[in-house]
Design brief:
Layout lengths: L1 H15 L44 H4 L3 H16 L3 E4 L10 E9 L5 E10 L20 H14 L16 E9 L13 E6 L11
Antiparallel strand pairs: 1-5, 2-3, 4-5
Length: 213
């Protein structure tokens, strides 16, 4: 009796299930390769270390100080900062907020991959800055792409010649209005005043207000 009841109720269970939607019929005449079981063989590329990949960029300043080429690059960057009057050496005080600094190393290459020059850049640790203490506004006015296209159109229609230039140490030309203090960089500590710090007079890379300055 129980089995008969179960069999009689089975159609009701099946009829209560939702209908499975049928996939829509394709009406577009285009036939893809996959529909005809045509597949392109996968080509695996093997990456090898190219001889132009060396020299490697140092990860730590201690590594760079052991290489004469990187030492020269660091000296060029340091001398450029000094010649621009980027800072003044002042006694350290507990009231100062020291933002910190570090060296960043890059190998500049030609389009064919050969080494052009070794570039060392001294950057500030802007994440240590405090709002209202060593920076206020950080908004930087920039040029609109529409303006660039307008200038290019005028030059083309009037037959003007265009020149491109790269300003070396562009951020060093901005005058700071806030008091920003930075320690002496590794490898270039003044031996006569090792405990002094730099009071920045001009902007330096990775300061929050550097683009605005």
């Amino acid at each position: 009796m129980t089995s008969l009841t179960t069999l009689q109720s089975a159609p009701n269970i099946v009829s209560s299930l939702p209908a499975v939607p049928t996939p829509p019929r394709r009406t577009h005449p285009m036939v893809t390769k996959a529909q005809n079981n045509i597949f392109c063989p996968k080509q695996l590329s093997v990456t090898t270390k190219h001889p132009l990949a060396s020299p490697l960029e140092p990860t730590f300043t201690s590594q760079a100080l052991k290489d004469p080429q990187w030492c020269k690059a660091m000296a060029n960057e340091f001398n450029a900062l000094v010649s621009h009057g980027t800072w003044k050496l002042v006694p350290q005080s507990s009231a100062f907020n020291i933002v910190g600094c570090k060296w960043v190393f890059r190998v500049k290459r030609h389009p064919d991959g050969t080494v052009d020059r070794f570039k060392a850049r001294l950057v500030a640790k802007g994440f240590n800055q405090r709002p209202g203490v060593d920076y206020t506004e950080t908004f930087s006015p920039i040029i609109k792409p529409t303006t660039i296209r307008l200038i290019l159109s005028l030059a083309l229609s009037n037959g003007w010649s265009l020149h491109q230039l790269d300003v070396n140490n562009a951020f060093l030309h901005g005058q700071l209005t806030e008091q920003v203090f930075m320690p002496q960089p590794v490898g270039f500590v003044d031996q006569s005043h090792p405990q002094h710090v730099y009071a920045l007079q001009k902007s330096i890379y990775r300061l929050k207000q550097a683009p605005r300055a």
